Amino acid sequence: MSPESFAQVSNLLIPTATVIYALAMVSHAIEWAVGRAAVAKTVPAEQEAKAESLVAAGAASSVDAAAASSGSAGSVSSTGSSSSAASSERMDAASRIGLLLTWLGFVLHLGGVVTRGLAAERVPWGNMYEFSITASLAVSIVYLVFVQRYKLQWLGLGVTLIVAGVLGLASLALYTPAGPLVPALHSYWLVIHVSAAAISGGAFTVGGLISVLYLVKARAERRVLSGGTMSAAVRRLPSAEAMDGTAYKVLAFAFPLWTFGVLVAGPIWAEYAWGRYWGWDPKEVWSLVTWVVYAAYLHARATAGWRGRRAATIAIVGWFVFIFNFVGVNLIVSGLHSYAGV
């Protein structure tokens, strides 16, 4: 096939993958909606059962009244249990469909990135469009790998929302026809630097999403301890403690990769391209800021024993700093890295 043919295939696969990811997102949204609806239906039943048990206790002198109340409560409990089981089955089905669609979207996405590289006859991350489709592919890869290892299906809604959004934005606003690299990019350090940044960025995104859901779960657990209820969708999440540990593992994996790829390989490449290792270019500054935030996260956990909400807050701040470094610096701030823009 000619480069033009590969470009056409890539231009077809990327939008198709975007649609598939969007369908996966809808499936996971249904999963969460069913979970919320399930609780909305069962809470009144729980309250009714409690009320009837109090009536039964107050009528202890009447065996018939107590038996009637017990039978009514048993009927409510049976009805609630049956409804909960049916809702759980629907949630499981929506989760499986969402994960299968994510796998399909990933295959198409991977094909789109590979054919883009074949069309350009180089690695496909020479401009903002290419880095966007590659970085979002890294998010999918990290998510699917950790799904197999840590059963992170519950993260599907956030992941598919982000990936579909990035691909849609790339296709509509950032698209650039395949072409040769800017001369400064001609180096094998391009492969090392950008691939490490993309993979670690994908891990930062997954870790940030886990941290957001950690806060949701921790709040729900506190509400339950105060006598409140927890939605079926949130109940399906792992415990807050387990989510805190998973976020730490993901970010501990990403941090040394970011350190090597961005703060070691990047300066070496800069010396090759511009004759200096470090020049306080805006991209360099914000890459360093990103590193400092995640270094603070890991240091606080290791030395000060920070866990839970404080650690999750730092992780979320780090993710927003990374997003600004990825989007804001490239598209808003002028600097030597401006070639990475549109």
UniProtKB/TrEMBL annotation:
InterPro entries xrefs: Cyt_c_assembly, Cyt_c_biogenesis_CcsA, Cyt_c_biogenesis_CcsA/CcmC
CC terms in the record's Gene Ontology section: plasma membrane
GO MF term list: heme binding
A Pfam family this chain is assigned to: Cytochrom_C_asm
Membrane-topology annotation of the record: Multi-pass membrane protein
Main location: membrane
Coiled-coil residues: none
Localisation per UniProt entry: Membrane
Keywords: Cytochrome c-type biogenesis, Membrane, Transmembrane, Transmembrane helix
Protein name (record): Cytochrome c-type biogenesis protein CcsB
Organism this protein belongs to: Kribbella shirazensis
